[in-house]
Amino acid sequence: MLEITQLCKTYATGDTALREVTFRVPRGQMVGLIGPSGAGKSTLIRCINRLVEPSAGRVRLGDTELTRLHGRGLRQARRRIGMIFQEYALVERLTVMENVLSGRLGYVSFWRSFTRRFPGRDIENAYRLLDRVGLLDHADKRADALSGGQRQRVGIARALAQEPELLLVDEPTASLDPRTSRQIMRLLREVCAERDLPAIVNIHDVPLARRFVDRLVGLRAGRQVFDNAPDALDEAALTAIYGTEEWHTLHADADGVEDAPARPARARPVEVAS
Fold first, then answer.
1. pTM for this one?
2. What are the residue boundaries of the ABC transporter domain, all occurrences included (predicted)?
3. Is residue 220, in this structure, part of any structural domain at all?
4. Interacting residues of 14 by C-beta distance below 8 A, sequence separation 6+
């Protein structure tokens, strides 16, 4: 369980990015974080893993209050949080396998990481993960030889190699074509269900979010203005999040767009912090 309570972020310039954001994400639930550019979505994700320091509020993962940690305790806690980036953040000169194994760097000694001599268990698990994301045949390719969708799959495998308790996903489909975007979102949803992982996905594509996530949280100017199931995202809610627009177009499926399979039975109902 991830619990965010009255999270605030004000920068040194005086700009406020987050204003008392509060919600919970239970195990196995994939939450889509939506809102206009500048709403605070990326800041929220980075405050959770402390890449950005919150100004106030609390973030708790399981029994650990992340916002109170420093030094070694914070480094150890970050091992429990898998991060998947918009721009993949791969080391392009390394192989796919080496990039996946980099998810274990927080668990091995400096010399093992420096010489890239990982334990056999980690290597076996990396092969299993590459098989799961459909890239087993690409294990020995350099990362710069892959397509965008393949690179994002490597990023997913690398995050899972950490054996995380939480996934944070920042714009995973921004650089991908529509078909590949659906494949990546479907894969994320499946691995969250399989591993009972809570996940927060920062995503601009509202129709794609509605199609694949279990729940949506909407931000506007740093404030939380929506928290409900995708089916509840009507025109009034969209206007509250984004402002006035012709929102009826979001309800129409594009020609030839493949529907997502039904959400896994284990998906949790909406749970809002009191």
1. 0.84
2. 2-246
3. yes
4. none
For residues 264 and 274, give the distance between their C-alpha atoms in angstroms, rounded to a whole number.
Answer: 26
Q: What is the CATH number of the domain that holds 235?
A: 3.40.50.300
Residue 202 lies in a domain: yes
Tell me the three state secondary structure of residue 137. Answer: helix
Element (H, E) at 242: helix 235-242
**Mind listing the pLDDT tens digit for each residue in 140-198?**
999 999 999 999 999 999 999 999 999 999 999 888 899 999 999 999 999 999 999 99
CA distance 174 to 153: 14
Measure the CA–CA gap between 171 and 173, rounded to whole angstroms: 6
Residue type, position 46, single letter: R
17 is a domain residue:
yes
- CA distances to 15, 90, 181, 231, 244 from 259, rounded to whole Å, are 40, 30, 13, 15, 27
